[in-house]
Amino acid sequence: MHAPAPAEHAPAKINLALHVTGQRADGYHLLESLAVFTEFGDHLTVSPATEDAFSVTGPFAAQVPLDAGNLVIRARDALRALAPASAAPVAISLEKNLPVASGIGGGSSDAAAALRALARHWGIAADLAALGLKLGADVPMCLAARPLVAHGIGEHLQPVAGLPPLPLVLVNPGVGVSTPDVFRALASRENPPLPPLPGRLDTGSVLEWLRATRNDLENPAKTLAPAIADALDALKGTGAPFARMSGSGATCFGLFETDPAAADAAEAIRARRPGWFVAATKSMR
Predict the structure, then answer these.
(1) How far apart are CA 233 and CA 216, in angstroms?
(2) Which domains does the chain have, with CATH numbers?
């Protein structure tokens, strides 16, 4: 008998800063982003099966496609194609705790977790980052799942050592925004790059650095979904020293100085906005 497989963590990806610096001839936008990954996230397990199966549980399970439109299925099939003789049928179970299509890389992180878990389960040695890039521009950074600066379309990754765990509150007001629509609403695609990171990384210096940065997608997203401004106001109203939208939205984050402050803020927002997604967490080293 096989022992139950440990759950693979699929963390939320938070773009602390996201600068759009250009656009390639093929339409892909060039980005520079400081991204971190959180202790809160989805969980994925792989177990032997007589035939392939995929099931989803958790608060956002109803929004997850169960067919080949799902990145987890595509990740399974792409890895299997590299070594079909080694890739016996598997049952994949996903616990979906992150809101879908919400700017925090949930689908890409799930795909990365599937690649890691399946490569281990099947004993396949492969360049997972190269395989992941074919699935989506965010998958390589989700495979890394540590603080990093991403360049290009997200495929050039520069690890950031020494970033402390940052207490965060994630808030999604329950509205969907289309990433292509957000990019179409962007006024300028040629914007200044990220400033250099501070030499000493502590919460105070990170906060100061963040105030000199942007998420170039935040304003166009707010025009499409005004509730994003409500989420940011809610975070600032609970004393977040810094609040910003992540990715192309609609999830926003508040950065707090301590874990208890983040927990208190999450509780206060949840009480006032029971229909919203709210989670207190912290970034991983």
Answers:
(1) 18
(2) 8-157 (3.30.230.10), 161-282 (3.30.70.890)
